Amino acid sequence: MNLSIRNNKKRYWFPYGVLALIGFLTSSCTYMKMNPPPDTDKAFLAGNNTCYLATAANMLAGAGYGTGGTVQARADNIYANLTDHFGTANTGWTDTALNYPS
Fold it and tell me: What are the DSSP calls for 33-76, one per residue?
């Protein structure tokens, strides 16, 4: 009995299995699709270090937090709340702003 032929038959399904898995994963992803995504802009003034707050506001609004009729309105509302609490002169980390209870 030739073992090399037998081993090739076992591996024959592998490419089809990988293709099936990729097809399943790309068609069954249930993440929140936004078009356009929220984009809160900070004022470009000297000493305004709120990039991390804008990033956190966009992420939180995309996840459904905040008040407003649209995702952009929610992001703007969250950004206003975060700048009221943290101020505009301080720098920080996005995860700090994400964990801030609103």
Answer: --SSPP-------TT---HHHHHHHHHHHHTT-S-SSSHHHHHH
Give the tokens for residue 17.
């299995």
Q: Which residue has the tokens 């969250």?
A: 78
Place of tokens 């609103």: 102
Q: Could you tell me the pTM of the whole model?
A: 0.64
Contact 64, 76 (CB under 8 A): no
Distance, in Å, from the CA atom of 36 to the CA atom of 101, rounded to the nearest integer, reads 26
Q: How many residues does the chain have?
A: 102
Q: Are 60 and 78 in contact (CB under 8 A)?
A: yes
Write out pLDDT tens, residues 53-75: 999 999 999 888 999 999 999 99
Q: Give residue 80's pLDDT.
A: 92
Ramachandran area for residue 66 (φ above 0: left; ψ -120 to 50: alpha; else beta): left
